[in-house]
Request: fold
Amino acid sequence: RINMANNNRIVVPEARQALNDLKLEIANELGIDNYENIDKGNLPSRVNGYVGGYMVKRLVESAQKQLTNK
Reply:
């Protein structure tokens, strides 16, 4: 059985800063200024979803490149 209560946990804690940097980079690319200091609860869920979705897309692309370079 999968524990869904902890699904946002970072598996590799050392990656936390890199993930935060990626989030800010993507938000900036999407034209969201000052994303780090914005109250995310005041943003539409669609905006937060775009940031998360593009993060996943970028991470998958990176993993695919690493797999094909081996």
